[in-house]
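Anyone else keep sequences and structure tokens together like this?

Example one:
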Amino acid sequence: MWKILVVDDNPDILEAVSLVLSRKNMDVMTLEDPAKLHQSITQFAPDLLLMDIAMGNYDGRNLCREIKTSPDEAKLPVILFSARNYPEESISQCKADSLLAKPFRINELYEVVYSLLPTG
């Protein structure tokens, strides 16, 4: 069973994404407080991270950059999502594996998640 960590400061988004991914037999952990991201990655050991960009004082692009430059977390696939438009350059600079624009269709979410999950 794949483990997905979903980070967003909006509890409604967390609940909706969790329900949708759980339907595909994925173990989903939600996190509303980005300050606990690294601790949650260590404890939960997710196969994939799905994270909002705009979260109060936190920018998902900066958090993604931290993950991708960490020896322990660099291999973790990161999908960023946002309702705002961000320059493509800022997404590639943080080394995100993918970007989903909100609102996204359920099939679009599944497609991106499945494309980044480890096989085997």
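And example two:
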Amino acid sequence: MQVTMWEYGVEIDEEFLDAPMEELTSQLAEYASGERREFDLPVRLPDSFTGDVMRAMLDIPYGETRTYGEIADAIDSHPVPVGQACGRNPVPLVVPCHRVVGSDSLGGFSAAGGVDLKRALLAHEHDSDWEQSALDAYR
């Protein structure tokens, strides 16, 4: 299913969500308007390395980021395969792969809009001037 986040179309694999699509679109609209910080949709995580990475991404609080290396350390892996697993995330936005960044860059983002959407999502979640200037440094 394709959903729109601002002007970007994002593909969500509804097979990994145990919720009606109307609930997904409602929660996405609330997130986009700033009324929601967390999604409370049941997500079926794959029984695989990608599922391990997704589980770690779900633990990243709204407004915070983790590096690929930090996620790798948490699951006893390496940054490159973590980045690859982030790119395979079947439910971006709901499982916040946009909150995973490189140690010296934003890293990639496989959803439509790529890094531009990732930057917009992170800016949406960050309020302070310091955090915004940190995002600007990744430009």
